[in-house]
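User: Structure please.
Assistant: Input sequence and predicted structure:
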Amino acid sequence: MSFLVEELTQYTQFTWTSILEVDVEETHEEFEENTETDINACVLISGAWKGMVVMSFHINLARAVAKKMFDLKNEKPTDEELRDSVGEMINMIGGNLKALVPQPSFLSLPIVSMKGHSLYFPCTKEVCKTVFNCKGQQFRVTVLESNEGSFLRKSA
């Protein structure tokens, strides 16, 4: 299954606009990772095609997403609110992309790693990725496909 950056961009922009009422634009800049503060989220897609969608946020953008989603005004979001809001965003993007893969297919619950913890996906290859700008802050969305031997593959 091949994903195109155009589809990834379209679904990501649709999700941010419909859920948060915020426009995001694709940028051709590199995502500047900060493993001490970044928050990562992913959902697994399994079925005829096996892979995952991963989204990486800088902490300030993740806080802004949680504040908007939970209407927190001037309150600082809790870690639980951060996990829930970031998880919901990747779940929506993954659900839209799942519609492109051969059916039947299933979407996992979101997996979220908090500040200072990274996610590692052995036996996968990058299909596509793009970086977005949201009011001057970056986030990245990546689609990975499972290789033979991956934990996503059914053992023989």
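The two ends are 22 Å apart (CA to CA).
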